[in-house]
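hey all, quick one before standup. I had two proteins in the batch that finished overnight and I want to keep them in one place so we stop losing track of which output belongs to which input. First protein below, input sequence then structure tokens straight from the run.
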Amino acid sequence: MLSFGIKLILCPLAVILSSYIFPGIRYPFLYQPIAIGVVLAGAGTIIESAFLRRGTLWITTGVEFIMFALLIYFLTLAFRGADITFSAAILTAAIVIIIEYSIHRWLIRNRETLKSQK
């Protein structure tokens, strides 16, 4: 549950930061990247609880990267006035996945995942 709390803060910040750094992203309202970040935090927590254990770090991270790129792209297009290119969605997912990778390593190292405790 601690990882969800961390993600709930860092994922929206990463999406907001990406919108300022990368061309091809436009969010007219602040709630839009925050909402996308919250969805990413939830999806990441679900994916890591299902797949993450010792030996699956890269597989879990890869699955999350693909899922995040698609979620960022399609969720952004669902917001009125927001716009994103697919390459910007991939770059944003790369920023978020760096955070996720760090969290995954910490969870495995501290045996915080359900699967690594068995």
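OK second protein, same deal, sequence then tokens:
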Amino acid sequence: MEDCIFCKISKGEIPVEKIYENKNFFSISDTKPKVEGHSLIISKKHFENILEMPNSLGLELLDCTKNTAFKLLEKYKSEGFNIVSNNFEAAGQVVKHVHFHLLPRKKADDFNIGL
């Protein structure tokens, strides 16, 4: 997708500092963090949502998620984390490119994901 910001980042058209990267996914810091260390796990290929993403990418998604989480837990001295994925507009998806929010958490951070 020509106008997709995550595709532009994936192609190197928009420079970013990556937290972790493998063949099909990478992670970066969110530009509007909800908590300290809020990061995004993003597919390098364009899939509009998780339903379009092939099941065969599951292991690489888990690899990127876990390695990003390990780095963030250590860097921010976090005590846990949330993984959130908004799929379709009704669920709050803004960028129509599959991605996952990883939110490092501390007991007293006063953040509520609303579940």
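Flagging for whoever picks this up: The mean pLDDT is 96. The chain has one domain: 5-105.
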